[in-house]
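== Sequence and structure of one protein ==
=== Format: two labelled lines per protein ===
==== Data for this protein ====
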Amino acid sequence: MSLSTQTIKIVIIMAGDEQYGLPIEHVASIERVLDITPMPEMPSEVLGVIHLRGNVIPIIDFGHLIGKRKTETTDKTRIVILQNEDRYLGLLTEEATDVIDIKADSIQSPGSFSPKENSLIQGVSKQDEDLIIVLNCPVIFKNRNI
């Protein structure tokens, strides 16, 4: 299969009116908001930890991670559990709306901006009239000291 016909499944999460995509190979589950236990001496983006299926998982505020306002908890709020090898990390998101297929070659660098190797942004994909910012999940793990 050539790269131009390869499709990637991504989970769409929301921050305000912006759509972000998480490649599904890094998404272990999507959970309703659970009780988050605050932990001392954690970075400011870490809200605390949850206990889920025998694992203690740190929870990061997605809004804070991307430099926006704090994520407010509503009925639509979800925790997206990411997995990288044997490590887990939860993202508190405003909403997880859908799982869609995008063509791998539709992910582009936005304009003259070229993501760095350790960039949170993998690229941007235009789907119909929407722009989806595709995130580089391994970098989310790599840059966390938790």
Summary: The chain has a mean pLDDT of 88. The helical segments are 62-65, 137-142. The radius of gyration is 15 Å.
